[in-house]
Each structure stands twice: as C-alpha cells, then as structure tokens.
Amino acid sequence: MNNNAKQHIFCLIMYFNVIFSRYKYLRWHFSTFKRLGLQGPQPSIIAGNLPEIMKKGQLQAMIDWSKQYGRIFGYYEGWTPVIAVADPQILRQILVKDFDNFRSRKPFPLAPRKALGLFLENGHQWKQSRSILTPAFSTGKIKKMFPIIDNMVDHLEENLNVKSAEAKPFDIYSFYQSLTLDVIGRCAFGLQTNAQTDPKDEFLTNIRFLFSGLSKTCILYLVMLIPIFQYFVFALKNLVIIFGMNPVVWLRNQLREIIRIRKEMGKQRSMTDREIVAQSLTFLLAGYETTSAVLSFLTDLLSRNKAVHDRLCAEIDGVIGEGHVDYDNVQKLPYFDMVVNEICRMYPTASLIVTRQAAESRSYNGVYIPAGMAVQANVWALHHDEQLWQNPEEFIPERFSPQYKEKIVRYSFLPFGAGPRSCIGERFALLEIKLTIVRILKNYRFTRPHDSEKPLELVSRGAIVPRDGVQIRVERRCLS
Ligand code: HEM
C-alpha cells in the first residue's frame, strides 16, 4: 500500500470517528430527560421537537404534550432541553421561594441577552435595571400617564363611532394594536406616534413588520436549531436601523431624569445608549402585543356572553354613569375585575414567556432540575387544569368573586408571572385595559357578526394572539 492510500484510509477512519462520536453525543444529549426520569415527546436526533413545534405552533404543541404527559415533562426546543412545569407547588418554589436559583430567564432564541434589556438580562445587570426602572411604574407615574392613555382612547372612540355608523363588522384587534402602540409609543418612547389615525404611520408599519413579519419567516426556528445565528439576526444595530434613532433619543431623556434623581440620592449609575435601546425594546415587546391581545380576547368573550356583557354595562352605568372615567373610578368596578381575571385565565397571552434557567442542580418535590436547565412555566396548562379549575374551558367570571376567590389554589393563576421577576408593567397594562373597555362600554355594545360558536384561532409569536383578528360589530347604547 503506498503512502497516498494510507493517508486516505487514515482520513476515512478519522472522518467516521468524528461522525460516530457526534452521533453518540447527540444520542446522549437527546436522552437528557430519560436520564432525569421525565416523560416527554420523542425528539429527533437532529432537531429535537422542533418539527412538531413548527407544524403545530408552540402553543398547540405544548397543549397536546400537556394532555399526554401531564404537569411536568421535558421537550427539546431545537437543541435546548426545556422542562415544562404546570404544578403550582413547584412553580411557587421556582418563581418565588428559590428565586436565587432561578434569577435568569431561559435564553430567548431570537435575541442575545443584552439586546432585550430587563426582560432577558440576568444577575447583577438585571437587578440594577429592575431597580432603575421600577420607579417608572410607581402609582404617581402611572397616574401621570392616565391622561395620555385617555387621550389615545379618544382616537379609538372616534374610529368606533365611524364603524358603528357603518354598521358593518370589522376587525377590532387591529384597532387595539394601533391603540396600544400609540400608548406605548407615547408613554414609553415619548414619540408623537399616530398609529390610530394614520395607517401608514412609520412606527406602526415597522412594528407590525417586526412582529408578524418575523413570525412568518423561519428565522425563529433556524435560530432554535443553530443558536449562534441569533447574533446575526438580532444584532442591536439592525434594530436601531428598524426603529430609527428616535427611541434612543427619547429613552435617554426619560431615563436621564430617573438617573439624575438616583445620582442625587447618591446612587452612581448611568445607562449606555445600548442599554437604553435594549430597555425601550423590552417595553415595546412586552407591552404592545400582550395588551392588545387581552383587549381582543375580552371583546370577543363579551360579544359571546350577553349576560356578562349586560352585567358589566350595568356596573359601569351604576358607578360612573354619565360622569368622566378617571383614575379612581375605573378601579372601583369589582365585577369588571372578575371579568378581566377570567379573561387572563382563559387566555394567558404571555404564557410562553414565563421562563427561568437553573443556576444550580436541585430537586423540587422529587423533580431533579440540573444546573443550566431551562424551565418553562406552562401557564396555559396551569390555567386550563381540570383539577385546579372547574370546567376550565367555560367563561365564568364568578370564579374570581370574593366568595370563591379564596378557594383558588395559590400559584395556579399566573397571567403576569410571579416573584421578583414578575411583570413590571402589570398595573400599567391593567389600567390601560380597564380604561379602554370602560370608555367603550359607556357608549357601545359589542355584538357578533355571525352565530358561529367556533373559538378564536390562536397563534403564538412571543405573545399568544388571535390569528385572524376579532370580527365584531359595535352598536351605540344608552345608559341603563
Ligand atoms: C396584559 C398585558 C401584559 C401581560 C399579560 C404581561 C405578562 C408578563 C409576563 C407573564 C411576564 C413574565 C413574568 C415572569 O417571568 O414571571 C412579563 C414580564 C415583563 N413585562 Fe409584562 N405583561 C403585560 C404588559 C406589560 C407592559 C405594558 C409592560 C411595560 C410597559 C410590560 C413589561 C414587562 C417587563 C419589562 C417584563 C420583564 C420583567 C423582568 O424580567 O424583570 N408588560 N410580562
């Protein structure tokens, strides 16, 4: 055998050796949950459970797996092993009691940690950002934002006025999207956005592109398969190009004020442009789709449930009557609180973002979670668990009445997450939702354009949203 042939054989052996070792590694990697004694869908050796996620959408895949494997199971988001948890006691430990072990969120496939501010930051950086940003959501600050939101709802009402005169069905979801974008644009970015009055508004078109455009491409799945890809897709400078420089200018001004106050208090801390852009993106991503989705689900369910709709209108007429809706009276509607809670139970729009990553290996009620493991709080399954909720698929606001509320199992209702990393914008979002719906219902009724009982089709793109919008009619109504 000459030297050349020997070299070829050597290369071939090395080649097979590499392939074999890789194959053995993959088999070992994709048997993580077998070793942990956890059930879950069978992964493919190349893409984990990504094919099923791509085929059904993440929400539907999770619903199906929950039915098959119960409250705790393991699945592979591409290469990343994830433990899904829908057990209230274990969730309490992960989100609250043992928070020190779960300070980090699971990496988000589409964004490097630093690109999404508070939402994805971890450790010391997260703690600092959270303490800097928390004052922006104080009662005083939210009260100051009330007139801005109120003013934005004026535009929505004008649009609804036109629609009620036309007496034709229309998609109210896109109206709510424009509203929440204007609200976040003005309250968080300080921009004079006109998403509601100008369908070609630059801010609106860019953001719509970002959310629906990205979700229609395969980018997300590609990144799940090859995580390093995220650095090319979501490089921060690309986002600045998408949004223009305004958000940077605005946020610097907003946060400069907080930073100035903190400096006066002796706390030396300032944000770089990069951090400021990242925080502004967090607010945008967290506040726009989620809030418009909840408004849409609420509208849809009211149009299907005349008794609830009537009772809500009666409460609004009784408490507010012909007077103005203000910060105080909008919070004094106990039945409305029950309705909003029930909507958030049935449609936990942010179900898929309640995630954590374990710092150390520990066991929780017999479930071993190794260091580095990603955990997905399976909020949708939790909110639809028959052992926790009677007739979970039925819309029953009375579950949240003072009489029954106490019977709700703790940590079985998590629309805004829980613990130190729960939603920072919860009170802001609830105020926006309440103000919007109360102002609409003071003058209009929602009616369905058809008798179909078919529930809304949903799609998950970060938030869970109505796939084809919400078709509705609005009719003028008089005070009862
Ligand atoms: C109905 C509307 C909303 C819902 C259902 C919602 C829900 C959530 C959920 C479930 C989380 C994860 C909590 C956890 O992991 O425990 C979250 C985080 C977050 N939300 Fe919201 N959210 C809404 C509106 C908003 C708004 C309007 C803002 C800001 C203007 C906001 C800002 C944030 C931020 C910054 C985080 C990350 C907090 C952290 O990691 O420290 N959210 N939200």
Automatic annotation (TrEMBL):
Which GO terms fall under molecular function for this chain's record? metal ion binding; monooxygenase activity
Alphabetically list the UniProt keywords: Heme, Iron, Membrane, Metal-binding, Monooxygenase, Oxidoreductase, Transmembrane, Transmembrane helix
Q: Which PROSITE patterns match?
A: CYTOCHROME_P450 (PS00086)
Q: Locate the coiled-coil region(s) and give their ranges.
A: none
Sorted alphabetically, which CDD domains does this protein's record hold?
Answer: CYP3A-like
Q: Which domain of life is it from?
A: Eukaryota
> What are the required cofactors?
heme
Annotated signal peptide: none
Q: Which SUPFAM superfamilies match?
A: Cytochrome P450
What InterPro entries does the record point to? Cyt_P450, Cyt_P450_CS, Cyt_P450_E_grp-I, Cyt_P450_sf, Cytochrome_P450_3A
The residues that the entry says bind heme are: 423
The family database entries (Pfam families) matched by this protein are listed as: p450 (PF00067)
Transmembrane regions listed in the UniProt entry: 209-229, 235-255, 276-298
Record-stated family: Belongs to the cytochrome P450 family.
Instruction: Give the function comment from the record.
Output: Cytochromes P450 are a group of heme-thiolate monooxygenases. They oxidize a variety of structurally unrelated compounds, including steroids, fatty acids, and xenobiotics.
Q: What is this protein called?
A: Cytochrome P450
What is the native source organism of this protein? Answer: Sinanodonta woodiana
